[in-house]
Design goal:
2 copies of one chain form a homodimer.
Chain A: H1 6-12, H2 14-25, H3 37-54, E1 58-62, E2 69-74, E3 82-88, E4 108-110, E5 113-115, H4 123-138, E6 145-151, H5 161-167, E7 176-179, E8 191-196, E9 198-207, E10 213-214, H6 215-218, H7 225-235, H8 257-264, H9 270-277, H10 290-295, E11 299-308, E12 317-318, E13 321-330, H11 336-350, E14 356-365, E15 368-369, H12 375-388, E16 393-397, H13 402-411, E17 415-417, E18 433-435, H14 436-456
Parallel strand pairs in A: 3-6, 3-7, 7-17, 8-16
Antiparallel strand pairs in A: 1-2, 2-6, 4-5, 5-18, 8-15, 9-13, 9-14, 10-12, 11-13
Helix pairs in contact in A: 1-4, 1-14, 2-4, 3-4, 4-14, 5-13, 12-14
């Protein structure tokens, strides 16, 4: 029988936990900048040591062709369920450095928050897992197996983690992947991210005449690729905000009325939304709310468009070419490569004979869904409700974390995205921070997740 | 009574005329390059001397805030008609210099052509007028007054010639302006340019959210300015190739069936046109031929468009802004500032509430028409038919020579565009040339123009 509860253990170790987090935060593990290569190694080693200190049977730093991956585990019982914790120790660059009020790599506590690059994303959030694991071990209350996989390339696309998962598939075997790398709707509105959109990113080029032409001599007589591209792009979305690519919606999961009601019950002010973006009105697919349009419905956006003369003043040219980068956010159960094919076929089909078109697939990622009826989701829901006093809402994020669907594809394991971030944490921006109390509440909630999840599996 | 005809005078002076033209061609009077400033002055002085030598009462070099204007005249009879000859002595830059087969400023004759920068545009063509004037004076056959206005800034927008015309309006008084600075349809298809399109050049900017947004978090929920701009641009032309701006066509001069038949009788091969541009098909306003679309009908072209990420690879951004440069070629009797106003009103009216739009007028020029029934046109027609053996066709050029409509506006004088250039002369390109025989035929035709025009006015 434990001498104390995990919560009691957490409470008496608050100061030490913060000190240890600060040690990690002080390492400038910026994955995008090659001069920080030694810091990546140092950070990985420091985390491996933390895992062993917390109670892991062992923890190792695995070199990759990029930054190392930390793997550690504690196997309590081969028949018990296994939780695989995923997190990343790399952080975003700190520029513009001048806008930071304090040194991004010298964490300080002020106004109840920890200020440092990585305080939330994701060192702060991953370290909650290390400390929750320690609290469980120390109080002898761990009833499952735990594995940690901590990577150093999340901010640059998790390039080498896909291969790592392929190579160590057996070692990584687990029942569920637990991730804290997302945000909640608001401080008073706890939520669990249960959907992530996928992505199909295309580039198109429309070529008209074989050279730039004088718009006086040819204007009106030949197809202008910039006009044609505008026309083609415009036609991809109809007046109801529907994407016109044939079969685009075939695989889109239709949410039940109940799910939509649940999803829309999250507090959301359209006026605040418009005000914060300084727009006169929103725009999107008819029949859906803004939350739904950005969370559970696919979208199509021009990310870049260019053609002809774009300098100062005037040049009377009919450009020879016009290009655009066009990406589509996908929802379950759309397949990104199918969508790429449908897009290309459609774009080629609608191009007039007056131009040639080139369509390239740049990259893609699968949408991800964490079913709200799976035991791990229920365990996370209960754990958060216990700690924060409110049942968390299922949240469908419009963004993409490609590695999450990668895990499902390679390892065959679902993830629970039990994130404790908030918009106000300013991840990726100057003056990133993380609430001190949220850090401890998070640790506590994670211990409860272990408890409820294990119980549900017995 | 003259001792010889102008033609005879021309025939016995061929070698000298060529030598004198070469002297002018050797001066590198490139108006776009400031290091050639002294060459501009030298060229102007050389031309003033040529005019006096040819028989002018006087000729002066007028300084302006830019390059000097040469003015010379011969007044034979205050009651006789006055012809004002306009031409320009400045030339285009010669780059890419490496593509020239000979020195652009050391003229040579080869294959029956004069090879040099300015051989056609416009030194060769304006010098035909100096020599025609000389032939008339020398043979005592000049029955009208002649004025010359030769500028040095045509290739850079005739910036200071407008002010010069305002200032010396009285001195420039004339019945007709005669210009050789255009081309004919083909060597076997003589033509007279009787229409030039005008221009209204606009720049638009569409602003959506107040900052670039993450396309995952916001995609589908907010109006993307690049998508909206594409939609707005696409809507400016309907499926029949008609421009949709209300009242855009109100002032467009409708050509009679006879005029259209005449215009379309010029040889034109749609297959050759498509082949030379490497396009699968032409595109334009329904109900008009390609010649008409580019000559006597207005057009609307995107000259430049830009928004968002236009570098290599992918960036998942919803851009905050999107811009385009859009110009319209205008035909008689459209007014460029009215069209600018109509465009702006329409563009603002069609913009959805989800974006803000900014519309700027960059510049404009009036269309020009040289009525084919005016005596000067008839005189040019007859003169060319006499010399080239075929009645020249009226040609409506899609391009613009803003100073020509400037003359009409400021001086109240119509111009006859009696150009002897050909597409093959490669003006503005490396290896510009001008046919030797065309040079002499042109001189002869100009003397006949004087004759017929004066006769028609008696």
């Amino acid at each position: 029988m434990p001498v104390m509860t995990p919560k009691e253990f957490i409470d008496i170790n608050r100061e030490r936990f913060i000190d240890e987090l600060f040690t990690i935060l002080r390492i400038p593990s910026v994955s995008a900048q090659s001069q920080h290569k030694p810091d990546m190694q140092r950070c990985a080693e420091s985390l491996a040591a933390s895992l062993v200190a917390a109670g892991a049977d062992h923890a190792e730093v695995y070199p990759t062709n990029g930054n190392p991956v930390v793997f550690g585990e504690k196997i309590t019982d081969r028949n018990a369920p296994t939780i695989l914790v995923y997190g990343h120790y790399d952080v975003m660059p700190t520029d513009p450095r001048g806008e930071w009020n304090t040194d991004p790599f010298e964490p300080v506590i002020k106004d109840g928050r920890i200020w440092a690059r990585g305080a939330d994303d994701d060192k702060g959030q991953l370290f909650m897992h290390v400390k929750a694991f320690e609290a469980m071990c120390a109080t002898n209350s761990l009833n499952c197996n735990v594995k940690f996989m901590l990577e150093g390339e999340e901010e640059i696309g998790s390039t080498h983690l896909y291969g790592f998962c392929e190579e160590y598939k057996e070692m990584l075997a687990a029942d569920i992947i637990l991730v804290s790398d997302t945000s909640m709707i608001g401080a008073d509105v706890p939520s669990i991210t249960c959907g992530l959109r996928g992505l199909t990113y295309m580039e198109v080029e429309v070529t008209g005449p074989n050279r730039d032409l004088h718009s006086g001599h040819y204007g009106g007589g030949v197809a202008n690729p910039a006009n044609v591209l505008s026309r083609l792009v415009a036609s991809l979305i109809d007046e109801n905000g529907h994407i016109t690519i044939p079969h685009f919606y075939d695989d889109v999961r239709v949410f039940s009325d109940e799910e939509r009601r649940d999803f829309n019950s999250a507090p959301f002010s359209i006026e605040e939304y418009k005000h914060s973006l300084d727009i006169g009105d929103v725009e999107g697919e008819a029949g859906f709310t803004t939350m739904e349009r950005t969370g559970i419905r696919p979208s199509l956006d021009v990310n870049g468009i260019w053609s002809g003369y774009i300098g100062e003043g005037a040049k009377t040219v009919i450009p020879s070419r016009a290009s655009a980068k066009i990406s589509m956010r996908l929802v379950p159960n759309q397949d990104f490569s199918t969508i790429a094919r449908l897009f290309e076929e459609h774009f080629r089909a609608i191009a007039p004979a007056s131009v040639k078109v080139d369509v390239k697939f740049l990259h893609g990622g699968a949408p991800y869904v964490s079913p709200t009826d799976m035991p791990a989701y229920k365990a996370a829901e209960k754990a958060i409700e216990d700690v924060l006093g409110k049942r968390p809402l299922p949240y469908y994020s419009g963004g993409s974390i490609p590695i999450i669907s990668g895990f499902e594809k390679i390892l065959g394991i679902k993830s629970v995205l039990m994130g404790f971030g908030l918009e106000e944490d300013a991840i990726h921006s100057p003056n990133e921070s993380f609430g001190v109390e949220r850090f401890f509440k998070g640790i506590e909630a994670i211990t409860l997740f272990y408890k409820y999840y294990t119980e549900s599996r017995q």
